[in-house]
């Protein structure tokens, strides 16, 4: 019985190291989304930090600021969704088959 417990602890430590490595790799990734046919592009890293926003000059219209705001929101929400999906795909492999409520 003691050998099984030691083996399980080693497996848990190995999985924890793999999870930490996977999370670090996710944080290094870059994600990009655009809206309005490329008129607004938002770039974020895997930490869900917006690192760049590009707005094409032709979309800037002082009479229609609302459209520009909508495009920025759409691109930002899209890039955050991409990060969330990638995180779930990557980190979900560690909890697959485990019945642990609240995990990923």
From TrEMBL:
Family of this protein: Belongs to the YbaB/EbfC family.
Xref: InterPro entries: YbaB-like_sf, YbaB/EbfC
Chief place where the protein resides: cytoplasm
Low complexity: compositionally biased ranges: 1-19
Function: Binds to DNA and alters its conformation. May be involved in regulation of gene expression, nucleoid organization and DNA protection.
Quaternary structure and interacting proteins, as annotated: Homodimer.
This protein's UniProt keywords: Cytoplasm, DNA-binding
Disordered, as annotated region: 1-24
Protein name as catalogued: Nucleoid-associated protein J2Z83_002410
Pfam families for the chain: YbaB_DNA_bd
Subcellular location: Cytoplasm, Nucleoid
GO molecular function: DNA binding
Organism: Virgibacillus natechei
Keyword ATP-binding assigned: no
């Amino acid at each position: 019985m003691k050998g099984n417990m030691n083996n399980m602890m080693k497996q848990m430590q190995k999985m924890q190291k793999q999870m930490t490595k996977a999370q670090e790799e996710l944080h290094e990734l870059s994600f990009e989304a655009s809206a309005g046919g490329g008129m607004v592009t938002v770039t974020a890293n895997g930490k869900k930090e917006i690192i760049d926003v590009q707005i094409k000059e032709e979309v800037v219209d002082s009479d229609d600021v609302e459209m520009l705001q909508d495009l920025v929101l759409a691109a930002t929400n899209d890039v955050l969704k991409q990060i969330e999906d990638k995180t779930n795909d990557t980190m979900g492999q560690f909890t697959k088959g485990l019945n642990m409520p609240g995990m990923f």
